[in-house]
Structure formats: C-alpha cells, structure tokens
Amino acid sequence: MLGPVILAASRSDRMRRFISAAPGTKQVVDRFIAGENVDHVLPVVQTSVDKGLELTLDVVGEDITTPAEAAAARDAYLELVGRLKDLGLGTKAEMSVKLSMFGQALDDGHELALANVRPVVEAAAAIGTTVTLDAEDHTTLDSMFAIHEELRKDFPQTGCVIQAYLFRTEDDARRLAAAGSRVRIVKGAYKEPASVAYQDKAEIDKAYVRIMKILMEGDGYPMIGSHDPRLVAIAQELGRQAGRKLDEYEFQMLYGIRSDEHVRLAAEGHRMRVYTAYGTDWYGYFMRRLAEKPANLLFFARSILTKG
C-alpha cells in the first residue's frame, strides 16, 4: 500500500526539497512533464496533433497562497490560449485547470476562482476549444461543481472531472449525464479517508465500471481517463451497447504513459486525448503519478540509484 504513503509525501515540504534535489529526479520528471514553459510544450502539441491525437493542457501548480499568484496562474493560461491561436491549434487542444491554482483555497476563494477562471473559459471558446475543471480532494468538490454549473450557463461545453473512488460519484454522474455535460471519469489520485472513498482497488474498479455505464447511457459526452487495458475494453463495449459512435466519447491518457496505446486507439478511429502537463511547479502532479502505479515508483527509484 505505497500509494497512500506517496500521497501523504506529496503535501510534505521536506519531501519536496529532498526529491527536487535527488540526482535522478529530472530524468523521471521529464517523462511526465512536457516542459517548463509554453515554448517547451507547443512542439509537443504539434507532434501529437501530427499523430492524430488531441490534447488537454495543464499548467501545473496548486499551492497558491496569494491572490497575485492566482492571477499569475490565470495569465499563464491566457498566454497558452493566445499561443495556440497563433499556431492554429485551438480546436485540437483544450485546457485542464485546477481551481486551487486560481485561488479556491484563499479567503473568498470560491468567488476568486470563478472570477479568475471565467476569462480563460471565454478565451478558450473564442479559439474553438474549451476548459475542463479538474477534480481535487473531496472538500473542494461542491465549490468546483457550483463553478462548473455557473460557467455552463454561458459556455455549455465546459467540462468537469469525477473520481470513481468517492462514494458520492455515482450520484454526481447521474446528474451530470442528464445535463449533457462533458465529463471525464478518473479513478482518483488524492489521499481520501475511508469515510468518503473506497480504499480497495477492486472496489474502485467496480465503481469505475458502474459510473462509465451511467455516462455512456446518458446524454453527456464521456471522457474515459484510464490506462487500464481492461477498463478501456469495457468502455468500448459499453459504448457499443449504448449505441455510441466512436466520436461520441473519447479516451484520455497521460503524457508519457502508454504512448503506443495513444496512437493505436487513434488509428482505430477513437478520439484520443493526451493529458499534457507543463510548468515548473511539478511536484504535486509528479507525486500523484508515482502513487497511481508502482512501476512509476520503481522507475524513479532506479533512476536515483543509477544517478546518485
């Protein structure tokens, strides 16, 4: 059960300093993070598009402590939208945002996050794309869903994320599927207590399948966020059973993980979107990737040992 330990470490400043200084860290971080700034990520976007893939772009960073930092996060996304427009890539790349990065945890954070994210959503719509609101820990979700509902009044294409390991998510899925939303389902990558979330992997997988079925049978647009071959196959079958065409749902996978599968699914005619993160504040994102899969942790440990 290393996952919970790693997730706890993701909130530790001491571990942040240790891992950032480790000799092999950069090699592993580069596997999951597409670059430190927008100039680094745009060639990745173009290469992915040339392979028939689409993207969702995440400017990493969550530990926002001042309104000025939240405004800077907003401006980083606005810069990204502008650069995508200049290259004519707007319709191929959406944005994923964490509302914590827009000031959600600060005083009056709900209103601040809404005020900061709205211009990003407006700018994205102007170039033919959209924004998906990422899910964070369970204490933030009511605020996230309320902001999602508010944004959809003017920008109905705005998406959101639901997490299969939370007990509440089946009810959330029913509500969102009926609303015609764009909904990404993931297993969940935060340390949550047993009072609100399944702790057993098998139970999480069962919940994931139940929720996929709700989304596939609903009126919304499901976005299947998983690298698990079994869940991918189940999603394809549920899509067939629901009478969905291949462009009526999509798969999403992380940059740097199962890249051959990205191309394979796209070649089969599926919409395949690669979640691509970039930026300098990579620590929280990186630690959740390690927690999700033991092989990632082994890869990291091996890199430190060989570089130390």
Features:
single chain, 308 residues, alpha/beta, 8-stranded parallel beta barrel, 14% strand
General description of the model:
It is a single chain. With 308 residues, this protein is an alpha/beta fold. Helix content is 53%, strand content 14%. It contains 13 helices and eight strands. It has helices spanning 2-9, 13-21, 25-32, 38-50, 67-87, 109-126, 141-152, 169-179, 201-217, 229-241, 259-267, 283-292, 294-307; strands at residues 54-59, 93-97, 131-133, 159-163, 182-186, 221-225, 250-254, 271-278. The protein has an eight-stranded parallel barrel, surrounded by seven helices. Residues 303-308 have low confidence and may be disordered.
Percent of sequence in beta strands: 5-15%
Alpha-beta content class = alpha/beta
Order of helices and strands: HHHHEHEHEHEHEHEHEHEHH
Number of strands: 8
Radius of gyration from CA coordinates: 18 Å
Beginning-to-end CA distance, first to last residue:
26 Å
Q: Count the DSSP helices.
A: 13
Q: Could you say which overall geometry the principal axes of the C-alpha atoms support?
A: globular
Q: Could you describe the largest sheet, including whether it forms a barrel?
A: 8 strands, parallel, barrel
| Quaternary structure of the protein | single chain
Present the secondary structure layout:
Layout: H1 2-9, H2 13-21, H3 25-32, H4 38-50, E1 54-59, H5 67-87, E2 93-97, H6 109-126, E3 131-133, H7 141-152, E4 159-163, H8 169-179, E5 182-186, H9 201-217, E6 221-225, H10 229-241, E7 250-254, H11 259-267, E8 271-278, H12 283-292, H13 294-307
Parallel strand pairs: 1-2, 1-8, 2-3, 3-4, 4-5, 5-6, 6-7, 7-8
Helix pairs in contact: 1-12, 5-6, 6-7, 8-9, 9-10, 12-13
